[in-house]
Amino acid sequence: MARVATHNSDIDSCGLSFTELQELWLGPCNGSVFDGPQQLRAAWASGRAVVMRLWGSHGRRPMAWWEFEAGNLKHPGYSRERSTLWRAGVLTEAERVEVETEWRREFDAAKGKGAAARREHYEHHDIPLELVEKWTPQKKKALVTG
Q1: Of 104, 97, 94, 93, nearest in space to 130 by CA
Q2: Which of 83, 132, 90 lies closest to 108, judged by CA?
Q3: DSSP label at 140?
Q4: What is the mean pLDDT of residues 53-81?
């Protein structure tokens, strides 16, 4: 059977090597492949569409996005990235729905656990406290009659 070569025109046409694209995604590893900040910025301009298509989804952003587009946001680390982007309102509508659906599923999965185990589960899955509070049923307050 003949092998069919795949061709990804946006990757091929952005003018960047896979190593350069990888650095835009993950940041430098053992030193940058770029000769300086200007070259890095130019690479981001050339490869942004490709890098965002490949790695700027599911509530995540590539390291070059954090460097050049995050404004006052600081990368909080992988484990808190999605809630940070969600709070900042920078996720696309589809991403917001995707992560909120996943968080709700994980919120529901923690039902029946003790309070400490639930908190640990919510933290592990990076569920924003705002959503935990929204989804937690409020106990009815007893009416005080006098």
Answers
A1: 104
A2: 132
A3: P
A4: 97
